[in-house]
Amino acid sequence: MATLRPLMKPKVTKKRTKKFIWHQADQYVKIKHNQQKPRGTDNRMSRRFKGQILMPNTGLGTTRKQSTCCLPSGFLKFLVHKVKEPEVLLIWNRFHCAEIAHNIYSKNCKATMDRAAQLAIRVTNPNARLHSKENE
What we know:
This protein is low in regular secondary structure.
């Protein structure tokens, strides 16, 4: 079976990629480039004079609603603790992928993997707790 692909992979778009610099940080070595908003009343940057450095605003970030909690594969993660929990993702198997919790017994982990394969649900850690025993 081919690997399952997400229905839509959100593209991270940034409204501004250029970094904001602190006022007069380009002129003096002693002033760091870390941006802090000037709060003085006489500051020409905070008064937004023409030709001055721009100040950061709240709307200049990424599309947070689509890009947070999203894996690089395009899926959202869903933590699975029990064998029957992948059935919740039956409808959402093109948006969410399952991740087996770290504290699951290895027998239940294998049963969860089998159930996810039947339901065509992608699992991020398919080899969790599957160690081969060596005979010495």
